[in-house]
């Protein structure tokens, strides 16, 4: 996989509240260019919301987001999101379009590619995730694992500088998880900058460069995988790890 | 036996039916189709606008759609047809010189249809999972493009059966246009049948008109069922086996 221009990503002192519910309470996160940061933590800790604030699907109340060192909060959010690919827990493929159309849609409409060029490019992406032969099929006829690989191809087709994965394997049957994780590991190895919200502790430990543990809307601990998993310093991380491992 | 014969003559006087057939075919049928089709098309377009307004983030737009829908869905069709048909007649005459209430009939039917169709579209659009809009926005599409390319097409697909039902209702409601008084050449199926029935004192022409309605509505009813089944079980297609497990991902997925 050729990832030409992956960038670094920084979230600074990010705050977000829904009414009286303070979901993010001053989050700092830095992901070096070409590295993978995994974000772990209990349900409701604000991990998924953090991703949505970083690509401005939700605007933060306070704080800053920097892509390659430059603040992007004043940019057009639609253009920002074209630079950040996102993969969802529920795949969210467009069910009324074929696999090929799912991948080619943004290329045609946003990159303004001619139809044949967009199709060619989409087929190349599908080939990379091993699903070129399913190009003409509707997503509903694919397994969960295949759908998630198509979703990854759809995000990669836009040539993003950063990739977000929001519990990308949580909705998959156990036997399908491996294929998707392998694909994500390949991406990481190819030098893509990635933020991976995950419950897959094995992936977090083996693939990511840094691990961030969130709880209650704050970063409780963060560091290299070895430090987080083998030497947790806070009781909260300690009890979380003993619950999930 | 007399009673049966009498009923037979009242409802199934073949000669009376055959006599009215040409008029039903050349006058009534085309007019019913024009009324239903025109108001169906206008109602669909206006209904879509109302649905988009109804889910808009702009409060004023939402309220306008709400009030419109409540009024035109809440009133009996015949009341709207009379008010529009008779009330706006002079205005139309001043504007165009036409004394025909026919366009006003189409307008009244369109107003009613758009209120119902607007609600049908709105419920369909709102039934599309939030993740669809989110995924589209995450790719970099604007709210507007996301609605246009991703959300609305899915919403409309889901409510196609309800939409066809609304067209069936329109075909039947077009008969109410007779209230506003149409010249002979503008009469729709019901009016043609009803006039003949009044003239002869025999209801058979009305039965004949009824058969024409059924010719129009029954195929549509079956179309609804067909679409409904198709939407539920999908096109006949082999469900792909879960081949992730067997298929070596590495081959294709290598970086």
Automatic annotation (TrEMBL), chain A:
One GO cellular component, as annotated: plasma membrane
Localization per record: Cell membrane
Coiled-coil stretches: none
UniProt keyword Transit peptide present: no
Keywords (A to Z) from UniProt: Amino-acid transport, ATP-binding, Cell membrane, Membrane, Nucleotide-binding, Transport
Membrane topology: Peripheral membrane protein
Family matches, as InterPro entries: AAA+_ATPase, ABC_ATPase_HisP-typ, ABC_transporter-like_ATP-bd, ABC_transporter-like_CS, MetN_ABC_transporter-like, P-loop_NTPase
Keyword NADP applies: no
Pfam family, one: ABC_tran
Main location: membrane
Domain named ABC transporter: residues: 9-241
Molecular-function GO term, any one: ABC-type amino acid transporter activity
Xref: PANTHER family: AMINO ACID IMPORT ATP-BINDING PROTEIN (PTHR43166), GLUTAMATE_ASPARTATE IMPORT ATP-BINDING PROTEIN GLTL (PTHR43166:SF9)
Protein family (similarity comment): Belongs to the ABC transporter superfamily.
The protein, known as: Amino acid ABC transporter ATP-binding protein
Organism: Arthrobacter echini
Species lineage: Bacteria, Bacillati, Actinomycetota, Actinomycetes, Micrococcales
TrEMBL record, chain B:
Chief localisation class: membrane
GO cellular component: ATP-binding cassette (ABC) transporter complex
Localisation per UniProt entry: Cell membrane
MF term (GO), any: transmembrane transporter activity
CDD domains: TM_PBP2 (cd06261)
Biological process per Gene Ontology, one example term: amino acid transport
Segments passing through the bilayer: 33-53, 74-92, 104-121, 167-185, 205-227
Membrane topology: Multi-pass membrane protein
Domain named ABC transmembrane type-1: residues: 29-224
Keywords: Amino-acid transport, Cell membrane, Membrane, Transmembrane, Transmembrane helix, Transport
Superkingdom field: Bacteria
Family per record: Belongs to the binding-protein-dependent transport system permease family. HisMQ subfamily.
Protein name: Amino acid ABC transporter permease
